Amino acid sequence: MSASRDDVGSARLAVRQASRDGIRESSRAGRGSLNGIASITEAAARSLGSARAKEQEVLDVASAYFLKHGYQGASINEMARSSGISKESIYRYFSSKKQLFEAVIGRELFEYQQQLRRLDASLKTMDLREALTAIAETVLGLVATDKTLALRRLVFAEATRSPDVGHHYYEIGPKQALRVLETVFEAHREKSRFDPRTLARHFLAIASWRLMLELECGVRAPPTKKELHAWVEETVNDFTKAFLRA
């Protein structure tokens, strides 16, 4: 994640420095330098793994804290005090509350991105209807949950004060789904008079707008798999009639 680039970069620098030191030390001692380098590199790799585990622990704490207190109500000092993680540990990985919040967004959307990547690889073997059904069920199945809805509310509230937070969420979330849809419609360009970008925007809007609005307003609970499948089937039927050639 972007929030850990400095830490990863420092660890890599330490690996390179340790390797150089190991070569010099092994040469002076007359021992096999490859064995010395291997042992030092393994130690540095363990150190990097430990640092990443600590970073994930910080993100666990931050995610729960932001969801409970909101972004404006969150305090790094209080977060550290209530969790038992030192403030220094938090600032070692994240230089500000905003950077920490963006890292939380990134981690929460990681599975969303991974699912889309896996799906993207299999869409070429599907016909258009199958592909649209698969994309809609994947996207809605990931975003129509209580935790994701709570995160979205936090993002939208903070985006009014810090638009770049909203841009960050959009780039790593909704824009990825639009990209996959555009690729699918490009592969089936002959089936509609609309261009792929327009089709992607309309399909995502039709599939998600009313469902997400009802969830946000508390009109309905997150759908079961059966309910979601029925919703997607209806969406694909309506979209096919309106935008695709018979």
Provide a compact summary of the structure.
It is built from 12 helices and no strands. It is mostly helical and 246 residues long. The model is unreliable at 1-32 (pLDDT under 50).
What report would you give on this structure?
The chain has 246 residues and is mainly α. The chain is 80% helix and 0% strand. It has helices at 5-29, 33-69, 76-83, 87-93, 97-108, 110-122, 128-143, 146-159, 163-172, 174-187, 196-216, 225-243. Helix 5 packs parallel to helix 9 (163-172) and helix 7 (128-143) packs antiparallel against helix 10 (174-187). The longest helix has 37 residues, at 33-69. Residues 1-32 have low confidence and may be disordered.
Question: Topology of this protein?
Answer:
Layout: H1 5-29, H2 33-69, H3 76-83, H4 87-93, H5 97-108, H6 110-122, H7 128-143, H8 146-159, H9 163-172, H10 174-187, H11 196-216, H12 225-243
